[in-house]
Structures are given as C-alpha cells and as structure tokens.
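Tokens in:
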C-alpha cells in the first residue's frame, strides 16, 4: 500500500506565536525541502490581504522560493484571488514560475470574499465574476504561447511556458455560479465546500463533457501528530483556535459559506473534531483503513511555532511512513 502526502501553508503569524515572519518563512522553505526529499506530492499555498496576523499576500513569490529548494513536488496556489491582479502581468509571472519550477506549478483561481480586501484594492465586489472570467481566459490564452486578443488588442505573453500548455488553470469557490462558471471555462474545480460540487458536475454534463465523478474533497480536517494528546492540545490548541476563529470571522462577516466557524475556547474546538491530534499508531490505522491513503498536514497552522510543527512532521517521518514502506 502506497502512502502519499501533501502540505499546505498560509503563514498566519499572530503576535502570541512569538516568532518573526522571516523565521516562519525560512521554516516553511526547510519543510518544503524536507517534504520533497521524502516523496511529497503536493504543496499548496493560499493568499489574503491586509490580515492583522500577516497571512501570506504573495503566493507566487513564496512558490518561487519553494521551487528553488525542491525538485519533484508539485505546487498549487489555492486559491489566487483574481480580482486583485492585472491578468497580463499575472500570466507573465506564472510563466516565469513555470520555468523556475520546471512545470511543477498549477493555479486555482477564485473571486475572493472578504469585503475589506476589495476596499483595500478599490475593486467593486460586483465585478468579481467578470474579473475571474477574464483572468482565467487570459491565462489559458497566454499559456498557448501564441498571440491572442486581449481587451481589443493583440498581445503576446513571452516566453512560452516551460510545460506545453502551461500550468493548469482551475477554479475554486463555494457558490453555484462559481461552480458552473468553472465547468464552462476552467480546467477543473476545487470547491471550498462539498455542496458546490453537484453544480459543477451538472454543468459539465449539460455541456457534454465527461462526468467529473464524485466530489474530490471531503470534510475539512487538520491533523497533527503527538505521543501525548493532552500535552499537545495544551501547546497546539491556541493556534488551532486562532485559525478557526480568524477564518470563521471572515466567513461570518462576509456572509459566505465555508468550513470554519468561530468557537469560544479550545475545549469546544476539540469537541467538534475538525482539528485532531493523533498518535502515530492512530493515524496509521486510519490511513490503512482508507481506500487511497493520503496524509495531509498544515504544519504551521494558525501560527504554530516551527518546533511544534517539526515535532509532528518528524513523527510522521519516523513512525508513520515506515508502516507503508
């Protein structure tokens, strides 16, 4: 039985974490290199803007640094908030990143939902659909390596991508319009909630496309490994709490569907089961019971200090991975 694994990063760094963002960035680059050498198949980064906890605003820059430290792992921007980008400049940056990574980067394009971010960039929220559509179409045209029509003029993004056809351009989102739009113009759809998938599947079938099958995501869970549950919850719990409350506040304030909700304290969060701390043996049992074992970690979740993050990753390396070799 083959075990695959992946990582994600968003680089929240609340003040109580007690480390600099420079040190957090450095730790993530070390983790990317560590993961690549151990067969990691995917690393995802995401973006938000103007966040008080330093959430990553520049995913392409981060992936360029990670690509330089790795050789095999694939990367994705999950998700890139299209309304805040100039589509042509984005296409150029993506092509350069495609060369730096030797064709290992894909992008998931989304419309965004945090009103304060749209105010920051002076972008009307009612232009989201238009801007997402233009961005996806521009990227796909640019990645052909050929001239194309853009806002009434002929343009040519150079150089051509490293990978023929360039990075794949998927879409993300949680609404019916986003799902149906993805079926019409994108290379795929990664919903933020499973309920949106049926709209994508319906639209794909209506368009005469092959059935995309069941939803590729399940219940969102964050897992960390530790030998002592109680001690680990005492140390890791505040960072899990920060993440769910930060995302939950955005979701509630902006009236969108999402997998995160605010909670009062760590005990309430622990009882809900969205964040789990397992022993290596427990995780081995769960992975072996799965049809396709896939381990996924958010090691620096909620501002987790690197030493805590490494303690979980080392248990995965030293105790979980050997059970599948």
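Residues out:
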């Amino acid at each position: 039985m083959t075990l695959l694994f992946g990582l994600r990063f968003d680089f929240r760094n609340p003040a109580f974490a007690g480390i600099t963002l420079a040190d957090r960035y450095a730790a993530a680059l070390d983790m990317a290199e560590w993961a690549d050498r151990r067969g990691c198949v995917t690393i995802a980064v995401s973006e938000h803007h103007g966040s008080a906890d330093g959430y990553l605003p520049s995913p392409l820059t981060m992936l360029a640094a990670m690509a330089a430290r790795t050789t095999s792992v694939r990367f994705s921007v999950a998700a890139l908030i299209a309304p805040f980008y100039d589509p042509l400049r984005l296409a150029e940056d993506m092509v350069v990143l495609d060369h730096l990574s030797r064709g290992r980067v894909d992008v998931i394009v989304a419309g965004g939902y945090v009103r304060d971010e749209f105010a920051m960039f002076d972008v009307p929220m009612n232009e989201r659909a238009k801007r997402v559509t233009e961005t996806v179409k521009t990227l796909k045209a640019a990645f052909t390596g050929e001239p194309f029509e853009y806002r009434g003029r002929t343009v040519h993004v150079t150089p051509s991508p490293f990978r023929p056809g360039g990075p794949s351009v998927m879409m993300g989102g949680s609404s019916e319009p986003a799902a149906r739009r993805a079926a019409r113009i994108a290379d795929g759809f990664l919903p933020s909630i499973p309920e949106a998938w049926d709209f994508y599947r319906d639209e794909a079938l209506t368009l005469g496309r092959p059935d995309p099958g069941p939803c590729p995501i399940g219940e969102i869970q964050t897992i960390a490994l530790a030998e002592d549950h109680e001690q680990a919850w005492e140390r890791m719990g505040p960072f899990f709490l920060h993440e769910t409350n930060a995302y939950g506040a955005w979701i509630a304030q902006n009236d969108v569907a999402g997998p995160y909700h605010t909670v009062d304290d760590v005990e309430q969060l622990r009882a809900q089961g969205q964040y789990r701390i397992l022993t290596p043996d427990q995780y081995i049992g769960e992975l072996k019971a799965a049809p396709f074992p896939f381990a996924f970690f958010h090691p620096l979740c909620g501002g987790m200090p690197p030493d805590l993050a490494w303690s979980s990753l080392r248990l995965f390396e030293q105790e979980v991975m050997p059970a599948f070799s």
